Amino acid sequence: MTMDADMTDEELETGGLGRDPTLLIVEDDKPFSSRLARAMESRGFTVSVAENVAEALAKIKAGAPAYAVVDMRLGDGNGLDVVKAIHEKREDCRAIILTGYGNIATAVTAVKLGAIDYLSKPADADEVYKALIGSADDTASPPENPMSADRVRWEHIQRVYEMCERNVSETARRLNMHRRTLQRILAKRAPR
């Protein structure tokens, strides 16, 4: 990270974190969340960890963090619900979504709900840190390998699914697809 002349003395002292270095990590993979928590603490954050949506919502109710790293798929729900709850309590929170099931539709939804970035797993601590404190001017480099036809189809299905507010029956009807076929597609990881 380059130190900007526009940063205050306090931001320079805290590495760009500002006055409130609170970070909520919502991740159900315990080894990954503990490694990420340690790495973020070493970078100046005050970290709290939640393993599911219910625990995250309770922590947000007690006090919304300035930063958040939220897994997309959690055992008891969707990480997008956590991002939405955070931004209802604190609009200036810099939240990012981590997912192993990345697609354009959920990335767009995450940004609409207030996320500032969307990272695919496995993401390392440096990528997460850069996303959390990066400026809006930071741009991603173009992909080296464009999407396959299977991936484009999968992305379209995901976009319609999100437009239908994650309603499988309505999505299947709009795509003229059998409901069980759609459920199988949604349960699988994204094709490369």
UniProtKB/TrEMBL annotation:
Respond yes or no to whether keyword Translocase is given for this record. Answer: no
Is the keyword DNA-binding in the record? yes
**Domain of life assignment:** Bacteria
Q: Which UniProt keywords apply?
A: DNA-binding, Phosphoprotein, Transcription, Transcription regulation, Two-component regulatory system
Q: What are its GO biological-process terms?
A: phosphorelay signal transduction system
Q: Which residues form the Response regulatory domain?
A: 22-136
4-aspartylphosphate PTM positions: 71
**MF terms (GO), sorted A to Z:** DNA binding
Note the InterPro entries from the entry: ActR_PrrA_rreg, Bact_response_regulator, CheY-like_superfamily, Sig_transdc_resp-reg_receiver
The record's PANTHER family line, in alphabetical order, gives:
PROTEIN PILG, STRESS RESPONSE REGULATOR PROTEIN 1
- Specify the protein name: DNA-binding response regulator
Name the species this protein comes from.
Limoniibacter endophyticus
